[in-house]
Amino acid sequence: MTPAARTQTAIELLDAIIAAAREGGASADVLIARAMAARRYAGSKDRRAIRALIYEAIRRCGEVPQSGRAAMLAVAADDPAVAESFDGSSYGPAPIAFGEPVATGGVAPAWLIDALAASGVDGDQAAALLGRASLDIRVNPAKASVAMIQDAFPDAQPTPGLALALRLPPDTRLEASEPYAAGAVEVQDAGSQAVTLAAAAQPGMRVVDLCAGGGGKTLALAAGMDERGEILATDTDRPRLSRLEPRARRAGVAIVETRLLNPGAEADALADWSDNADLVLIDAPCSGTGTWRRNPEARWRLTPARLARLVETQARLLDVAAGLVRPGGALVHIVCSLLDAEGAGQVDAFLARNPAFRVEPLALPLGTPHGPGMRLTPLNDATDGFFVARLVRA
Ligand SMILES: C[S@@+](CC[C@H](N)C(=O)[O-])C[C@H]1O[C@@H](n2cnc3c(N)ncnc32)[C@H](O)[C@@H]1O
């Protein structure tokens, strides 16, 4: 493909991504994968170049751009090679017209920048939310030692304080590797591994992973339990939860049971665990402001109304979890967001409603104290952004 044809393809895909962001459609990654599968003439170099153009445009535009072309013109404004590709050739975009609309740059929509600033996230911290994400893995101690995995990936770097975490070069073909096929490693951001340590899961515990999804944190909890005890992994999303059991089998984990919940009726479905769990982990559904490095178009999807709904669900899930924790047991609240409404403020509000719980201070290998818990950020910790707090029932 010519550079002009690549730019035109990127513009068309950006149009689809913008429409999906406005209408709640599929993510950019999914739309790009679908489009590439349909464009068999695009070689691997073309695909990489088109993908890079699209993500450059998404990162550059804080507000939802008016069109894919306006977003690409924002890239062209700083990149002469992209500007030259607007050459009017048969598969390329029309030449740039004088006074054509160019999408406005910026980190995020203005209301979100204000909300982040009110949560203590300054301009540098906010800009780092759009940096490049690393490729981190967690070694599964049931299947391999860290040294064995370092032999398989000689460029892997350890993460200080995280005994099972390794950072790989971003172009590592992990999924085609033997350790991956054997369940000896799981892809998991180092920050995600660090916040899961707040749970301090131990052998013999009865644990509820209330928002288990596909089980990333469930398996990290299991790694600390040495196949002794019980983990009930629940979620309201059937397709996500259905991925957990095969993943647990692949990892050699047999102490996990899954249970599908109905939104709004979680407590009824969990009545048999009432006052009975040593540990409840809530990896809550959230705005994902801490994961923009991976899904930068997520900031175009978030609205104040959607954020308010998420905050309401999180509060409800915290109250459901409180009913499951036994006296002396612990509740851990995690969000991959830097907004206090979902993290520190959410936990403060829970404590005001539930005086039987108190905050237990955390000592994690990454992160800094923030309100009743700890915060990890891309700028400070080179991980996704997280808030985590550990609460103990009297
Ligand atoms: C941050 S994701 C969890 C990721 C997962 N723990 C992991 O480590 O891979 C949040 C999850 O909460 C689930 N969820 C949303 N509403 C829920 C509810 N009312 N009860 C339980 N889970 C819910 C979503 O389906 C989603 O899988």
From TrEMBL:
The active site is at C336 (nucleophile). It is an enzyme of class 2 (transferase). S-adenosyl-L-methionine binds at D235, D283. InterPro entries: MeTrfase_RsmB-F_NOP2_cat (IPR049560), MeTrfase_RsmB-F_NOP2_dom (IPR001678), RCMT (IPR023267), SAM-dependent_MTases_sf (IPR029063). Keywords: Methyltransferase, RNA-binding, S-adenosyl-L-methionine, Transferase. It comes from the Bacteria. Coiled coil: none annotated. One of its GO terms (biological process) is methylation. Its EC number is 2.1.1.-. Transmembrane segments: none annotated. Pfam families: Methyltr_RsmB-F. One of its GO terms (molecular function) is methyltransferase activity. Residues 102-394 form the SAM-dependent MTase RsmB/NOP-type domain. SUPFAM superfamilies: S-adenosyl-L-methionine-dependent methyltransferases. Belongs to the class I-like SAM-binding methyltransferase superfamily. RsmB/NOP family. This is RsmB/NOP family class I SAM-dependent RNA methyltransferase. It comes from Sphingomonas plantiphila. The lineage of its organism: Bacteria, Pseudomonadati, Pseudomonadota, Alphaproteobacteria, Sphingomonadales.
